[in-house]
Amino acid sequence: MLHIKSFTFNPFQENTYLLYDEKGNGTLIDPGCFDLAERKDLLDFVAEKKIRVTQLLNTHCHIDHVLGNAWAKKTFGVELLIHKEEAAVLKAVEVYAPSYGFVGYETSEADGFLKEGEEIEVGDEVLKIIFVPGHAPGHVVFYHEASHQCIAGDTLFRGSIGRTDLPGGNHKLLLSKIKSELFTLPDETVIYSGHGPETTIAFEKIHNPFVGKNARS
């Protein structure tokens, strides 16, 4: 069984996810924790549940999703995996972080790259890597087929989609990829987004104003 714990961190109200199996093997996704209190919240939960964090993943590398990367690598002794198209996006954060008020941001580098169609193991559980660019050039999502749960980053939100006006964004591509890669998942699939509450594929197919059945053309 795959457990998913969400934390909401930093002024962007970013959702950080900790996935773990029945044996306590854990994977941290998009650590947005920046200040001491946020990091303590994460560490307290890890200690309470006796989780061994063994890997660190980014869905994409915009600032709000990577603020805790360097800290997590050091704290848990793990490697960082991203899509290769996000390497430049991650590198750019150190340049603009101070302008967003994140003085003291510590940069991190990827230790390996995620590839579309491959799988990531969370202990006994398996996540499929799905490539959904558009919000960011190398955006991936992680799908747990056994339980129909998807860590979707900033691709699909409840009643919305990821913004596409940042460097590397592509609105038309994002719409296309949501329809071809996410809307082909089972309707009961729960979408855990990078911001806001979770949703389901069934709900978004009907109600999403950008990609649902009554979407604006």
Biggest sheet overview: 6 strands, mixed
Low-confidence runs: none
Question: What portion of residues is helical?
Answer: 25-40%
Proportion in β-strands: 25-35%
Instruction: Please provide the count of β strands.
Output: 14
> In angstroms, what separates the terminal alpha carbons?
40 Å
CATH architecture: 4-Layer Sandwich
Q: How many domains in all? A: 1
Radius of gyration using CA atoms only: 16 Å
| Shape estimate | globular
Q: Helical region count? A: 6
CATH class: Alpha Beta
H-E order? EEEHEHHEHEEEEEEEHEEH
Organism: Algoriphagus antarcticus
GO molecular function, one term: hydrolase activity
InterPro entries: MBL_Glyoxalase_II, Metallo-B-lactamas, RibonucZ/Hydroxyglut_hydro
Protein name: Glyoxylase-like metal-dependent hydrolase (Beta-lactamase superfamily II)
Structure notes:
- The chain has 217 residues and is an alpha/beta fold.
- It contains six helices and 14 strands.
- Strands 1-2-3-4-5-6 form a six-stranded mixed β-sheet, covered by helices on one side. A six-stranded mixed β-sheet has the order 7-8-9-10-13-14. A two-stranded antiparallel sheet has the order 11-12.
- A hairpin with an 8-residue loop joins β8 and β9.
- It is globular and about 45 Å long.
- It starts with a strand and ends in a 10-residue tail after the last helix.
- The mean pLDDT is 97.
- GO terms for molecular function: hydrolase activity; metal ion binding.
- Pfam families: Lactamase_B.
- Residues 13-195 form the Metallo-beta-lactamase domain.
